[in-house]
Write a structure and sequence with these properties.
Blueprint (H helix, E strand, L loop, with lengths): L3 E5 L12 H9 L3 E7 L18 E5 L2 E6 L9 H25 L2 E6 L2 H14 L3 E5 L5 H6 L5 H17 L2 E4 L2 H9 L7 E3 L6 H4 L16 E6 L9 H13 L3 E6 L5 H10 L5 E4 L4 H10 L2 E5 L12 H9 L3 E4 L2 H10 L2 E3 L5 H12 L3 H19 L1 H21 L1
Parallel strand pairs: 1-2, 1-5, 2-4, 5-6, 6-7, 7-8, 9-10, 9-12, 10-11, 12-13, 13-14
Antiparallel strand pairs: 3-4
Helix pairs in contact: 1-15, 2-3, 3-5, 8-13, 11-14
Length: 411
């Protein structure tokens, strides 16, 4: 009989997420019985996706995976209060609707962030006496403070206490980088409870590059460096606009293309217009099944995070996506993410938040020959396949799920 896994995550396809339908499908391919408990899709705009209507509960079959959607307050703007209500409303729905699904599962997997989901999923596991695996993508309260989302020290202390409760009660913790593991060990989490499992990409969607790039995508006469994803505070994209200004002054062929949405998009657009930047293009977010075409049309791909100690132990999942499509990477990041790009030998590393360093990195890539750029892309794809792929990561989770299910049966 297959091991039954319940995946609890606030974000799931068609929302962009590193642990969505592709993960569920791969687990099913590896022999697991998978159900998903998630919310109605609204990230990153805070508006429900077309074809969805808020209901008390909805059950859909997606590529053979049973997906249960439960209500939440849709929001993803700069209001900390509305964002908190978004998180809390989904956690409440998980507790109300998740009891039956948790009872059917042999193992519960919870995706964090937000912490409210981890807490609700862990409480379900405790109530149903099921082993639980927590996949930590953001370290709270550190991330809340670093992004400026929460500045009240009393609230941050409460969040820290809740984190410690989750860490004590979960059976295993998966983290996305060695730095995350070091941080958890420093907080007193036993080493045997924590395992580093690198994120992967949605390989099927990214490699389906049949669609044409969206209207407004710059032509091949420019050296197009694409940033795709959330345009938020953590990305610190003001520095990239600063790099664009420097390159424009030099008459460089480099142009930056921002593809996506987020709380900073409108302000960044206004800033680019105020500086009269003609080498910056903003394009709307595109569905995951079309993003591969956008990335494949680029000459290089950009990842940038604001300079912060927390982000030095973060590996943005877009690095894996960029490697999957086989394009050179301009990595304006530090710490674990920079080391990963350097180990893969697939691009250029720049200093995050430093416009001059970013400009130099962009100019360096633009000076490469077509053959050299193609070789960087091949190296990126090969490293991803060998070290970071969906099959490799899902197998690591599968080993944990089977071990926990076996231990539960033996007990």
């Amino acid at each position: 009989m297959p091991v039954r896994v319940l995946l609890i995550t606030q974000w799931f396809d068609p929302e962009p997420t590193p642990k969505g339908l592709a993960f569920a499908r791969e687990l099913a391919r590896q022999g697991f019985s998978v159900e998903v408990l998630t919310g109605f899709p609204n990230y990153p705009t805070g508006r429900l996706y077309p074809g969805y209507r808020m209901r008390w509960r909805e059950r859909r079959l997606m590529d053979g995976v049973v997906v249960h959607r439960v209500p939440l307050y849709p929001s993803h703007d700069q209001s900390a209060l509305r964002r908190a209500f978004n998180y809390l409303s989904f956690a409440f729905s998980v507790l109300i609707h998740g009891l039956a699904a948790a009872g059917r599962a042999d193992v519960i997997y919870v995706y964090h962030p937000p912490l409210t989901v981890a807490a609700a999923g862990t409480l379900l596991a405790v109530l149903r006496r099921r082993p639980v695996v927590c996949d930590i993508q953001d370290l709270w309260p550190d991330t809340l403070a670093a992004t400026g989302m929460v500045q009240n020290q009393s609230v941050l202390r409460v969040v820290s206490v809740l984190c410690d409760w989750v860490y004590r009660h979960v059976d295993r913790i998966a983290v996305l980088s060695p730095g995350f593991k070091r941080m958890l060990l420093a907080r007193g989490v036993p080493a045997g409870k924590v395992e580093v499992i690198y994120n992967w990409s949605d390989e099927t969607a990214l490699r389906s590059a049949e669609a044409a790039p969206p209207a407004g995508f710059p032509g091949a006469e420019r050296f197009r460096i694409v940033f795709a994803g959330n345009l938020g505070r953590a990305q610190g994209l003001d520095a990239v606009l600063g790099a664009a200004a420097l390159l424009q002054q030099r008459g460089s062929p480099v142009t930056f293309v921002f593809v996506g949405d987020g709380v900073e998009r409108a302000r960044l657009l206004e800033l680019a217009e105020a500086q009269k930047l003609t080498n910056v293009t903003f394009l709307p977010a595109v569905p995951m099944n079309e993003i591969g075409a956008v990335l494949s049309a680029a000459d290089a791909l950009l990842v940038h995070l604001r300079r912060d100690p927390l982000f030095e132990i973060t590996i943005p999942s877009k690095i894996q996506a960029y490697m999957t499509v086989g394009k050179p990477v301009l990595a304006a990041v530090a710490g674990d993410a920079a080391e990963l790009v350097q180990r893969a030998k697939c691009g250029v590393v720049a200093v995050p938040g430093d416009s001059r360093s970013i400009a130099e990195g962009a100019a360096s890539l633009a000076s490469h020959s077509a053959t050299a750029l193609e070789e960087l892309g091949r190296t990126a794809r090969r490293f991803y396949s060998e070290e970071l792929s969906l099959a490799k990561g899902a197998s690591a989770f599968g080993s944990i799920f089977r071990q926990l299910a076996s231990e539960k049966q033996a007990a």
